[in-house]
Amino acid sequence: MIARWKKALAATAACALFAGGLAACGDGTASDGDVENMTLVVWASQEDQANEDSWLQTMEQAFEEEHPEYNITWKNQVVASADAAGVAKQDPTVAADVYTFASDQLGTLLDAGAIGQVSDDTMAQLEEQTEGSETMLDTVKGSDGNVYGVPLAGNTWFMYYRKSKFSDEDIKSLDAMLAKGKVSFPLTNSWYLPAFYIGAGGTLFGEDGTDAESGVQFGGETGAAVTDYLVSLRENPNFVLDANGSGLAGLKDGSVDVVFTGNWDAATVRANLGDDWGVAQLPCFTLNGQQVQMKAFAGSTVYAWNPYSKHPKAADQFAAFLSGTYSQQAHYEMRSVIPSDVIVAATPEVEADAVAQAQIDTIANTSVVQPSLSEMSNFWTPCENFGKAIYNGEVTHDNAAQQTESWMASYESLM
């Protein structure tokens, strides 16, 4: 597979150098007397720029070949996507021209004025890359409805299980699995717990997660019913709390048959279960006699450009290039990063990748976009505390409704 993108890079180079270097495959054209000199600072993960043959350096070379109108000096720096917003907001004027960030940080970057809106050309590219997969497009939409950045990869969680324990029908129902095996779930983790409330119709900051005034709406009769279900889940002898890696350890020693986590734990799951590992999108659970679909938070790792860049056009183009179809294909082949691009997702290699398909299916069918508003920072701790209260027995069948409303009331002073 590596040979494929190397051949593609060679073809890109040949195209860019066609007619003695005077014509390019992209939009830009240049002559010897019409080259723009620039330095572009790029923030990326350590893994993507570890050596000269790493993905970032390879994509920079490809971008140069596609844009001979630029003479670029690259200044690569290690800033992980999880840290980008925190660093950039300190002083956007000296932040990178192009950087990667986690989509849940979009609100912080917008508040700091540290992120540029995509150009019309980039928007056209993004629409092709997300056709039929609106979730990924929504991860980069600001509260103003505009788009900032291009997703490079999706991020969510799904389900791994011991195949010998469950049928294909069983894995569609959390309750069916609880009847047959040990199910581990991170009930006290506020990234996972909302899946039950959101699945039942609860909302965070409105239907699309961009209305801060709407706050957290997990209460009412339905919310109370979800809490009551979770009390029953905790009481089920086949339920196991997943905390501090205990779920993965349980897969290995046989005390657990189901865990909920993401692609980052795929290798450990395969090692712990051997040939008996399975993976799938999220199941349903039974609420008031009806099947309700669990829904995970979905986000993305994104490349964007800084509006303080001295070379905004090139910065926008390079951010789009780094998250483009060609780059995502190379990223998957070089580092096994599951693509968000629908074209790459449809390639035989990705379609044959069970973990990739579980993530893609979850994002498409059993997820909601994780809100990126800065107010979201106030959501996590009360949610974690409520999960702990359920697990510790402080929330019971008798007080489920009251405790749920108290939880909701705790947000009123925070939002």
From TrEMBL:
Stated family: Belongs to the bacterial solute-binding protein 1 family.
PANTHER family reported in the protein's UniProt record: MALTOSE-BINDING PERIPLASMIC PROTEIN, MALTOSE_MALTODEXTRIN-BINDING PERIPLASMIC PROTEIN
Species of provenance: Bifidobacterium phasiani
Leader sequence segment: 1-23
Protein name: ABC transporter substrate-binding protein
Keywords: Signal, Transport
